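User: For documentation purposes, I need each entry recorded in a consistent format: the amino acid sequence on its own, followed directly by the corresponding structure tokens. There are two entries in this batch. Please keep commentary to a minimum and don't merge the entries.

Assistant: Recorded as requested. Entry 1:
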Amino acid sequence: MENRKDKLTAYIEEERTKEMELKEREITLETKTDLINDIIGPRRAGKTSLMRLEMKRLATKVNKGNIIYINFESRRLWPLTPEYFNDIIKIIYEEDLLKHGKVYLFLDEVQRIEGWEKYVRSIYDEFKGKIKIFLSGSTSKLTKSKLSYLLTGRHLTTIAFPLNFREFLRFKNIDFQKPITEQKEALIRKALKEYLSMGGFPEVVITKNENLIETLFLDIISRDIIPKAKNKEIIEDLAYFLCSNVGKPFTFSRFTKLLKERGLEISVPTLEKYFNLMKESFLFFDLDAFSYSVKQQLRAPKKIYCIDTSFVNFFGFKFSEDLGRVMENLVAIQLYRVVQQHPKMKLFYFKDYQQNEVDFVIKDGLKIEQLIQACHNIDDFETKRREVKSLINASKALRCNNLLVITNDYEAEEKIKGKKIKFVPLWKWLIEV
């Protein structure tokens, strides 16, 4: 009978010889630091593919035998036991891998091993600089806050988002490099309609299977949220409500009143806890209202967005009924990605006392870097007047002159009331940002 270590050795060797067709992503894993690199993000956003892409890149630079990949969901490794971590070290020594340089250890679905964190910490502490560790796992088990607690001072987090628009175009083999000809632009615009509707989860993009969207959404709710929240009906109501109201001011007290009207009792703190579980699972994210007063920021309603526009379309309002709201959600997603990559950056919305609202405020350190409106129907005179007025008022209040309106297809640079405002089509902004 094959013993445990032999089973692991055979598994590792087979993984080394696998040839897989992988689509390039813009997200890359950090190999220059010795810190543990943990990969988190929504289910099926491509965490395993990111690992395999990094392995493929490393294979061109280092001894291929020094790359070890283990997926603890593989049935071949059952029954799972913490002794596997000792076996990994034994294999490294037996194969004398360290003489060839650093060993790169990829541990997928690591949370399947009970007490994994103390073994990973031990390997890191003992072999720092000699073994570089990458790990990923179920979002419900490996949240950012939990990893910060378990791996204090030892890790660097990479978030695997669904595809951005450039990645989406690459998956579709659509050329978006300059110069953009009329033919290219037509293809890009057509792709954007699909992207707005179907979103950016890699498997959905490749298969065009709408049923997968429902599966993904319900998987996140049933596997990552409900086990911790226990109240299935309220969780589902909240998720569907938020999908239908992305970008609109939201207060937990208002939603508790709506639930009470339906005979469902819940406290505001409990509802906030449920929403935080949704944030940890990367189903939704929220923006605070910008104010120089922290107290006013906390009092103001939040604006909430969904991590993928496919969820908004299939579980909220219909795509054809409110394209502007879906467009705003997509802009929010892209800005959220950018801010997550820059620790000093924060994303807000802004509303003054006259109720003039700016969709997005980008703050970089102490400076307000940019003010952005997302407006699908800029051709309508009243709509344009309202959006521009809010932008100019915010520009004066926040002392920021970098003003942008993201549109459906209008492109220009206008000077209005002494303020220079850029108008950029959504497709072009998504490619360039």
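Entry 2:
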Amino acid sequence: MIAYEREFLKAHEQVERLVEIVQQAATAGQRIDEVERTIFIELLKVGFHLLSAFVRNAGDGDVGETIDVHTTANGPTPTPEEGQTQEARTLRRLPAPHVRRYVSIFGELTISRWVYGTREGQAIEAVPLDARLGLPAGDFSYVLEDWQQRLCVKESFSEATRDLAELLGIAPSVRAAEVMNREMAEFAPLFRLQQSPPPAEEEGELVVLTGDGKGIPMRRNTDQPRTHGQRRTKGQKANKKQMSYVGGVYTIDRFVRTPDNVLDELARKAAAAERPKPRHKRVTAEMTQVIDGEECNGRVSLFATLSDEVRERNPGGKKTVVAVMDGEKALWATLKFFLPSAIGILDIFHVIERLWDAAHVFHAEGSTASEEFVNDRLRMLLEGKVGGVIGGFRQMLKKHHLSGAKIKALNTVIGYIENKREHMRYHEYLAGGYPIGSGVAEGACRHLVKDRMEQTGMRWTVEGAQALLHLRALYLNGDWSDFVAYRIQDEQDAIYPYKTCLPA
């Protein structure tokens, strides 16, 4: 009997056995969830035999003693690009079949096939069976890789590996999952570059971008070990953090409000029912890292990415571009460099935090008086009376006998508002229907970074953190399936450029 026919027969036998198992379970009165688990386990066994039959039916990759391919500096290729130096080469079938491992969601297969090259011991240049089956570059199937990395972007590598193993009875190791994560992430930047903008009819009137920074706990530099038992110095943290810069772009319709509308919404601590929803929000995160010996600043990389997307989603520059961020000077400077025409808005919630700081100079925390203090100043700011708020605070400094600490606190608030007043024309923003809160950036920092990168005990290298951030962003943006398809096709094109040279 031919090998693939034996595998088909085993699959049939397994199905017949499964029918018997279910019948016996019905007779024994088994609980449905127990039967459900048993069926799933048995179906995995059926799948293993069917997949084995498929591989066996594909043959052994013997396409004759020789095959002819064109070669360039990049290796074998059926159709060299214009201008490339090329030559026709003949590859010979090596003396004995080579074996490779393939780990599928059903289990591990061993595949024996003929390979082609110049001679044994030299690099294998063509593997017809691998090309025909579309096998991945590594040992693990694209499906297994997809499923495990879907878990890895949401939970720790160890948890993802354990969960997948419990479901399938097989999973790559934690170390393999980490390596796989970095290898997949190498395709992320190019995938984002080739992404098409959302359909124009699905976009809102305004293009909005946000940016913020979030620290990630890093692994201790092993080149500078701390002596066992040595105490940290004052102010020294147990684990150093490195800043990741997180941003997002979305479109939204205008939403004209009055100061009263905003105050009412804040008082009720609920979003207005008629508030338009962000459309096609895409988030990303970048860290400062060394690439090819040069330092690439994460903040600059982020805004370069955001500005490219803004331009793609604003063809002809017809839409108003709005940037809503907190008060970090470096963020505003980078924004001005990449998108000088964007309307910069200081996130109102960061301003409210400063107003509470000022309120607590004069009133007890949690008091009605402190709440009224904040509401009065917030109304003035929303009405465009920034100078009035600053002037009022300065008068209060003179009229009240404050302690040194309280004087410092109030001066800090005054300095903050003075330095940011260029981006505090809230009366204009409300009249224009612009958003004035950076909830998208705050949410992205929490969801994209904190929820995954700051779980208990986690410590990262820059390379590992950046890889996961790229993949997690794609997942949160809803682009995961498209990315996986792109990554598979890109790898297939790279490892099997000779596929069209093979006989049908």
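Summary note for entry 2:
Residues 3-28 form the longest helix (26 residues).
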